[in-house]
């Protein structure tokens, strides 16, 4: 896969360890600070809100600046914010409002980190390796986050609630250093060479990215459909930690273990995705992934105990991994790399930028019952997915790489 991809992968491995630690620790610290379902859902919404506010300008920046520096800076800022939060927790100065503010800043950095990493894939890999590259990143994310970071976080949290945040801060710092080590001489520079006179301005770049997405009929519908389903997912999972601990009676120290078990499904999905795509076709596997994961979200609301819930969540992780990997390969095939940052930012503004709305709606619904967000979100997502089957089959098939 090449030295550039290997360094990117190494940075991803370390940052995913940090993400896994934070993924389990943040909900636990939230529910220890407040019982308000609205405030808890707002915390989750703050992580996603930056996609609505900053994805487009950050995407334009990714197309103009050395992408290694963006990766390094975003991880360095996350390290500083989480480190300061750990200190505040250790000195008993931390509040739910501090957590909400920290979540927002971390969310901004996540926008920059994710957009840059996805933009690097078509820059350093041949098209035939897109699915494999995305699969490796997904596998490392699943293994490190789910099987190492999340369980470790749960037990560290039991020892001292500030420990996961200190570990998280160190992880992001190391990821920043690794990002800077990506060998630029191996990067395939595919952006168009233009003179300073001909080079469009920053806002002209943003405008072009929005216009490109709007005029691309299939790309536009794919983004709008996945955005609708994404709102439903964020609605259904807005207060999932509270549901698992309060409704299903799980001890908080085992929360990370539950995330690890769920990660088995995502790991298998990531391993199987390229092979299944090659055998059955990307279109079929993408469609199955989005439809089945929507149905699983609905069924989770009916889970009578933690065992049934985890079984459903594990299968859901398998189907979502299929969808995510093949969807990213589809985008990387369709979108020209010199435009990728802007288009990626624009589509993520719609897809992920709408998720905070779903999170807040889920928090409001949860006041009337912790299962209701999954009922409502799962039902709507299933309807949208079933109604879009023909479209998903056609759009994915049109960009499949010949075998």
Automatic annotation (TrEMBL):
Membrane topology summary: Multi-pass membrane protein
Subcellular compartments: Cell membrane
Protein name, UniProt field: Major facilitator superfamily (MFS) profile domain-containing protein
Segments forming domain Major facilitator superfamily (MFS) profile: 157-403
Transmembrane segments: 12-33, 39-62, 169-187, 222-245, 251-273, 280-300, 306-329, 350-368, 374-393
Alphabetical list of CDD domains matching this protein: MFS_MefA_like (cd06173)
Keyword presence, Cell inner membrane: no
One GO cellular component term noted in the UniProt record for this chain: plasma membrane
Keyword presence, Cell membrane: yes
Lineage, uppermost ranks: Bacteria, Bacillati, Actinomycetota, Actinomycetes, Actinomycetes incertae sedis
Record Pfam families: MFS_3
Record PROSITE patterns: MFS (PS50850)
Keywords: Cell membrane, Membrane, Transmembrane, Transmembrane helix, Transport
GO molecular function, one term: transmembrane transporter activity
């Amino acid at each position: 896969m090449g030295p550039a991809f290997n360094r990117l992968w190494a940075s991803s491995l370390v940052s995913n360890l940090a993400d896994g630690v934070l993924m389990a620790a943040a909900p636990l610290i939230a529910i220890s600070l407040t019982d308000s379902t609205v405030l808890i859902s707002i915390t989750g919404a703050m992580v996603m809100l930056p996609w609505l506010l900053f994805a487009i300008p950050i995407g334009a920046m990714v197309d103009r600046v050395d992408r290694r520096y963006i990766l390094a800076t975003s991880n360095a800022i996350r390290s500083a914010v989480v480190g300061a939060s750990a200190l505040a927790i250790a000195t008993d100065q931390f509040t739910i409002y501090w957590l909400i503010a920290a979540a927002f800043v971390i969310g901004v950095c996540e926008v920059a980190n994710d957009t840059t990493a996805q933009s690097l894939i078509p820059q350093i890999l041949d098209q035939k390796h897109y699915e494999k590259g995305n699969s490796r990143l997904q596998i490392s994310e699943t293994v490190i986050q789910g099987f190492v970071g999340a369980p470790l976080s749960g037990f560290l949290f039991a020892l001292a609630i500030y420990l996961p945040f200190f570990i998280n801060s160190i992880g992001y710092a190391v990821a920043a250093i690794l990002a800077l080590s990506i060998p630029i001489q191996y990067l395939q520079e595919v952006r168009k060479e233009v003179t300073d006179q001909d080079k469009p301005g920053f806002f002209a770049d943003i405008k072009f990215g929005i216009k490109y997405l709007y005029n691309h009929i299939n790309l536009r519908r794919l983004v709008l459909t996945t955005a609708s389903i994404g709102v439903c997912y964020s609605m259904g999972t807005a207060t999932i930690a509270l549901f698992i601990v309060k409704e299903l009676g799980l001890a908080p120290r085992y929360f990370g273990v539950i995330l690890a078990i769920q990660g088995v499904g995502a790991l298998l999905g990531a391993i199987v995705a390229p092979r299944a795509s090659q055998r059955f076709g990307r279109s079929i596997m993408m469609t199955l992934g989005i439809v089945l994961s929507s149905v699983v979200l609905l069924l989770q609301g009916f889970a009578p105990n933690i065992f049934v819930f985890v079984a459903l969540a594990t299968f859901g992780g398998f189907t979502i991994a299929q969808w995510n990997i093949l969807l990213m390969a589809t985008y990387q095939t369709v979108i020209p790399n010199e435009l990728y940052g802007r288009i990626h930012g624009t589509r993520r503004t719609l897809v992920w930028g709408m998720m905070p709305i779903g999170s807040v709606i889920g928090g409001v619904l949860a006041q009337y019952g912790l299962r209701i967000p999954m009922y409502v979100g799962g039902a709507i997502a299933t309807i949208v997915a079933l109604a879009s089957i023909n479209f998903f089959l056609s759009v994915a098939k049109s960009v499949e790489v010949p075998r």
